[in-house]
Amino acid sequence: MVDRRSVTFDLSRFYQEAENQGQMPSKNEEIENLSMIAIRLSKSTIGHIRTLTSEGMNSHERLQYVQSISDGLDGEVFEFSTCNRVLYVGFGIDPQQLIDRVLSISGLEDAPFKIFQGMEVWRYLVRVCSGLDSFIIGELQVMGQFRGAISWHKKNNLLNDINGAFFDHVVAGNRVVRKELGFTKTPESMLSLATSAIQESMESEPGATTTVIGYGEMGRKAVEVLMSLGQKDILVISRSAEDAASRTPEIADQLQFKQFTDWSEVDESNIIISTIRNTSPTFNGDHPIPVISPAKILDFSWPPSVDSTGIHSNQILLDVKYWIRAAHKLEEDWNYADTIDDGNSIIHDVEERFMQALNDKNQGKFRAYIYSRLESLSGTWEQFGCNVDEASQMGAFSREIATWICSQRGEFNEGDLQNKVLQTERAINSSVLTNIAADVTREMIRINGSETLSEVTV
Predict the structure, then answer these.
(1) Does residue 239 belong to any structural domain of this protein?
(2) Are residues 37 and 173 in the same domain?
(3) Are residues 142 and 198 in the same domain?
(4) Final residue before a domain boundary, out of 310, 328, 346
(5) Quick one: average pLDDT of 119-139?
(6) Are residues 314 and 228 in the same domain?
(7) Which residue of 10, 65, 206, 293 has the smallest Cβ count within 10 Å?
(8) What is the pLDDT of residue 72?
(9) Residues in CB range of 138: below 8 A, 6 or more apart
């Protein structure tokens, strides 16, 4: 048995080399060059989010906004807005450059962005898409919004196929997390709950008058559902009636629009649907809902927009607590803390598998070279005095050795390599094995002495 350890090999540097001999970055480098800036809704950030969010913009306005950000940077930008967050992903862009550009285009002097880089970007997006970052844990709506954002960016040539593939990995990670946490069936998304609740309310009160507060994505969806049910009398309350009407010009003449300042007691409504966003309830004891007629109030905002003190005695409020129970189809509280811990653990496991898959892909060219090179060497091993049976095994034996070499993730030494050859269970005489071990060792010394894969293959 050989136990010499004078030569140490480390071929891991070749795994990171570009698959196209330096012309394209490896998948690991692509991940490392990712940056993301994100801002989540809170009392201190609501003003920033109102300025930064693309919610409320039509497709043309959003395209101009995102394009203006990416045009000033050396890379593509992906923008994603939901009811309680705004984020920007930059491909090959320094996070500070991304922040500076977003602030410049939005007209803000500063914003409390949280910065993510490399795999942190993937990790956070999986949390968002799987519903672990939502107030109804596991809700499905955000995943639909995320898929829609990806499609929109691709359709408008804001995201190429290579960068788009990164989001495929995010979606795949989300599927694993949702499956392992049992989110495949429950809870329902807020959008699904809203649709069902609106339909039930309309069926129980035929001919009811309805008011929708807020005309962002959720507000427009509520109007869409109402109109599909045949509802004619719909009042929309928004900060700007003119801006709200311009978001859906195709149906604007079928709706009535009013500003908050014009909404008063004279406006009767049987069903009030709130979709507005604020850090604290807009309607409370000091500022109650102006409508005083009997009404069912469906608050779909997060954080809540209607406090129990902000309604009148003849009104019924279906608030956040109600929706959480309905979403999980449970009467007891959902164990948020344990679910989040379990979700983070699953994301960690998925991340390890994801990184292994990237490493395997990056190693593809080097592995192919090692197998090819040892296969070529095996053609000369018959000269070491092999009999017919031994000669017939040389090709397979070369692949066995190549597999072992490619499985070494870090350093290995000459003694390990020679022992691998000499200790084979194949029926090959020891003198032939000794010569093969020496031949393979010489080749590994040559490869180990090269700086790049292109130099190795010369």
Answers:
(1) yes
(2) yes
(3) no
(4) 328
(5) 71
(6) yes
(7) 206
(8) 83
(9) 130, 131, 132, 178, 181, 183, 186, 187, 339
Using the CB atoms, write b or e for 317-347: b if 16+ within 10 Å.
bbbbeebbebbbeeeeebeeeebeebbeebb
Lookup: tokens for 245 = 């009407």
Nearest alpha-carbon partner for 288 in 275, 302, 305, 267: 305
Rounded CA gap, 219 and 272, in Å?
11
Domain count, the chain: 3
Question: What is residue 332's DSSP assignment?
Answer: S
Q: Which secondary-structure segment (H or E) carries 10?
A: strand 8-10
123 within a domain of the structure (yes/no): yes
With 0-12 / 13-18 / 19 or more C-beta atoms within 10 angstroms meaning exposed / middle / buried, residue 290 is: middle
Find residue 87's DSSP bridge partners: 38, 80
Q: How far is the C-alpha of 11 from the C-alpha of 373, rounded, in Å? A: 15
Q: Are residues 286 and 223 in contact, defined by beta-carbon separation less than 8 angstroms?
A: no
- Nearest CA among 74, 412, 119, 425 for reference residue 127: 119
Does one domain contain both 342 and 272? no
* Alpha-carbon torsion angle 248, 254, 260, 265, nearest 10: -170
Higher pLDDT, 344 or 129: 129
CA angle (225, 154, 188) in 5-degree steps? 35
Band (361; pLDDT cuts 50, 70, 90): low
H-run or E-run covering 86: strand 85-91
- Residue 2 located in a structural domain: no
CB-based contacts of 407, cutoff 8 Å, min separation 6: none
Query: Is residue 146 in a domain?
Result: yes
Nearest to 32 by CA among 359, 334, 391: 359
> Whose structure tokens read 């559902």?
225
User: Per residue in 159-191, pLDDT tens?
Assistant: 998 888 888 888 887 777 667 666 555 444 555
pTM: 0.51
Do 46 and 69 fall within a single domain?
yes
Residue 171 shares a structural domain with residue 66: yes
Range of the domain at 102: 23-186+337-359
